[in-house]
Amino acid sequence: MTRTFVGFYPVKDFSKFNEKDSIILVGVPIEKAKTTRRGSRKAPKEIRKQSLEFSGISSEFNISKCKTSFYDIGDIDSIKETSKINQLWKKVSSNNNKLIAIGGDHSITFDMLSAAPWDEKTAVIWLDAHADLNDEYPPNVFYSHGTVFANLKKDLKLDASQMLLIGGHAYTQTSQEHEKLSSDDIEFMPTHKLFSEKDKSLKVIQNFVKKFDRIFLSIDLDTLDQAFVPTLATAEPFGLTPQLLMEVIKIILPKTIYVDIVETKYSRKDRIVLNFAVGLIYFILQNLTDN
After folding, report:
1. 269 vs 22: CA distance, rounded Å
2. Which of 42, 96, 119, 196 lies deepest, with the highest CB count within 10 Å?
3. Inter-residue contact 26 to 88 (CB < 8 Å)
4. Domain boundaries, position 230
5. For 167-212, what is each residue's pLDDT tens digit?
6. CB 118 within 8 A of CB 156
7. What is the maximal distance between C-alpha atoms in the chain?
8. Do the beta carbons of residue 129 and residue 145 sit within 8 Å?
9. Could you give phi then psi for residue 288, rounded to 5 degrees?
């Protein structure tokens, strides 16, 4: 098994795992068709390694004293090990677990959530600089990091009211994505509104969350402004600040049963984005548990 994230118990044989009311961490080191520089497939290993620099203790959170137990089950190949993903969701559902996945590119969200249990009281929220609503991206590629939410909507027959994009701000979005966003194909909260009408925007997100019993949350780190994540292959200007990102996800996490962190592209010289990913995982744990 790969190195375990600090503060988590390693699970060597997941087929025997049966811990209830716990949080499970899984790495999904997958990149599919890419139009940008590769590297996010290495992130699960490097994020775990970077966690050695953290103690898991802050002024608000102490992982060693937390009532909830945390388990790291290692990595899953979401292309070759679909049966393992199905098994994982069965255990999460039957044991009242919560799941954190670290990618990998954004295509892992489709792989993970297409196997998840859905009903009309379940919604997906994603924070992203881009909508990822293309029907094909790049041309003639129908399942990639750029088609994730179009495919989830189509394949799972989701209603527009079950899907909320927060933080879209990139000027590289395709005309197809712009058309879908402007035609209310999904719910959409753009970055500029979060800044210009912050209180009103946070209330809109809060009201969306209230309508559902379960939330699946996906965080593409390029939702942050490029100043905070300069090594990402898809970094964009005019994105969220880390503080605003935390305010947003703090509203969402109380009903969240699944969260993924994707597109963590870093460089050997600049590991700031890895540091942020590790800190974000601890922040998520703090808000998913009873301390």
Report:
1. 35
2. 42
3. yes
4. 9-288
5. 988 755 567 777 788 777 789 999 999 999 999 999 999 999 999 9
6. yes
7. 51
8. no
9. -100, -10
